[in-house]
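User: Sequence in, structure out. Go.
Assistant: Echoing your sequence, followed by the structure tokens.
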Amino acid sequence: MRPRLEGLALIIAMTLQGCSLAPTYHVPQVPLPEHYKEAASGWHPAQPADRLQAQWWQVFQDRQLNDLQQQLLKANPDLAAALAHYDASQAYASQLHAGLFAQVNASVAPLRQRQSDRRPLRGDTQPSIYNSDTAGFSLSFDPDLWGKIRNQVAAGDAQAQASADDLAVARLSLQRQLATLYVQARGLDAQSRILKTSLDDYTQALQLTRDRYEGKIASELDLTRAQSQLAEAQAQLDDVKAQSNLSEHAIAELVGVLPSDFALAHDADPLKLPQIPQTLPGSLLQQRPDIAAAERRVFAANANIGVAKAAWYPDFSLTGLLGGQTQGSGNLLAAANRYWALGPLVNLPIFDGGRRSANERQAKAEFEEAAAQYHSQVLKAVREVEDNLGQLRDLQQESQDEQAAVDAAQSAERMAMSSYEAGAVNYLDVVTAQTTALQAQRRLQVVDSSRLQASVGLSVALGGGWKSGS
């Protein structure tokens, strides 16, 4: 009868080993818009088969930016720290996997020891000092009847996957910082060129005014206005240079180089504004690493509910010992010196003051928290896409309007200078026209830089750019 009962118990144990107390997992449902409010006409979600470009910054077609991004991936210390954190999470997940297997240990203890003369129940013939040699193996195995270990492993794997996504988030964030700073630096370069051109014009205008003043055609007031205008433009150029230095230093830090060893190459050709595709990727949720990380943490929290529930049930484990022990002589493997033990251990929780109940409530609350954070991350993603789409649309119109303002201001500047040379107007009209033209050119350049930065923002909001040729 006993062998039959043991066989039945083994069958039941093997059946229960496939049991899991974690709730059936479903990805939290978050409503998504059928179309984007700020999108231009024709935008609509693309098919899930779409794939986004990994090196998204290449849409700007700038070799220096590409080189800097590659250097960032190799030398940025923050990215190296994020990679080390990911490696640690992978190692922790591997530790949890070890719980699925039997644990076998070996021990050897050759001891020389002395026992107390007043040891209770000590015999008169027992020696005070003697040798005690022990060697053996121990084995323990948890059959995981309620799925506690498997759910811990599942949660650990999900956290490791989330850590991989966190690494991608860190990488994408650093890439965005670099691209934004690079666009800013190139914009400041353009501002510098505008100011240098204006300085040349103002210097010629000052010389003309000085000649007219010496010929008693222009007043001293005209001369001081020309001098003031030139000095103000020079001050603006100095401010742009200071901002440019700060941008260059920040880029050097991102690519892991000391500012003293780093310099950006100047390029007069403007950055190319990428062509926005006519479809938005339908794989937005899968593409953005922050959303993927949030979803994996929901899964991990769901598995942890199973871990908490398993604590209510008896904990079974199998233990085995095998070895030999002598008093300093004899063969450890001799039959008389062997010892062994084999049997199940059962730990049945009875009363813990409400600890298990609190742990289960905590696990369920953490699941609700993770699900809410996932929902929040999706809403944030949609909002960021909307923001950058709206920026690109509005800035395009602003750029067209500002270009018209530049054309009109430059025309007024030429007419004012011609009229001044003819003696028809005083120098105040020239100063006003030139200042207006300079401000319009600088505003146009700022708008163009903002359009490039919005393109960077849209690339990141989509999780890393869009498919070329869309």
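User: And one key feature?
Assistant: Residues 20-99+131-461 form a domain with the Outer membrane efflux proteins (OEP) fold (CATH 1.20.1600.10).
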